[in-house]
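Subject: mismatched residue count in predicted assembly?

I count 365 residues in my input, but I want to confirm that the predicted structure covers every chain. Input:
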Amino acid sequence: MIDEYDLTPIQMDALREIGNVGAGNSATALSQIINKRIDMNVPKVALVPIESVPDLVGGPDTIVVGIFLRVYGKAPGNILFLMPQKSAFYLVDTLMGREHGTTKKLDFMDESALMEIGNILSGAYLNAFFNFTHISMLPSIPAMAMDMAGAILNIVLVQLGQMGDQAMVIETEFLAEDDGINGHFFLVPDPGSLGTLIKAVGVE
Amino acid sequence: MADLIKVGMADYKVGRSPSTLISYGLGSCIGVSLYDPQKKVGGLLHIMLPDSTQARASDNPAKFADTGIPLMLNEVMALGASKSRLVAKLAGGAQMFAFANATDIMRVGTRNAEAVKQILRRNGIKVIAEDTGGNYGRTVQIDLNTGVYKVKTIDRGEKDI
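Triage response: the counts match. Full output below for your records.
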């Protein structure tokens, strides 16, 4: 039995590797879509008090675009891709072939494009993950919101909040080569899923 | 210069005039304020979930409506508020993401709002204003000098309730 709130350094490393492989694949996908180099940092794997999760993305009242997907399968959880508003505008301008700085407000098509990005990134993430662990996980259709980071993070935190006071987050930051886009990719396993993930990479 | 006191998620603060209590970025969470207009004291509570009995053990009673409200109520009364004069206002309880097959978790905002009102009623506290529901985030603040509860949003402006 793995105590999800008391992981060994090796188990934390295993989760970091999962984040690394998944996010690496996502970054490649994003890079191919927008034809720019994407850098990513080493994934942060951390057990953080639930109330301080919004600080990871600049505080609860920072305006962000959030793309949310539920993950189904043996290790269910949530995926949340958060971008500062400025990055989201830059990204849709890139996707739509418009001059940067054109978008001031997201219309229906922009939202759809961003959700598709969320779809592709999550698919790439989970695919890499499957190749690594042979645990198959399927993302739901994406949902999107542009609002305060605290409000958007509520959806994942509420679920964790029912089970405890801490959140295990696997977080990767993306940065495009021209600094136009940065984003945070969160994989938040449901309580109970962490054990499955750790076992799958063979470090009980 | 009046104090601005921050209230985090799953937390509460009490105080007296001229302080203002503020909580940022509420989605499905609810900001519950209590205010005694005569003594000019009050509190603000930022709850995440309706019911502690449906959750696994938690060290933090301020996370839930059923345990957080009585806690704040006691502290506000310790500052001199009277239960008969106290009035409550609440805001939040949104559903941030629309899904066709919304689960209970997605609808937690609505359940939060219902639980808060029920618990306030059980404690004999009048709810005099409410701004709940929708699909957008809110930042709330209560001015303990005037009792005005300000609700700020990103696209929908701000209002005093």
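The helical segments of chain A are 9-34, 85-95, 108-133, 149-161, 193-200. Marking this ticket as 'not a bug'.
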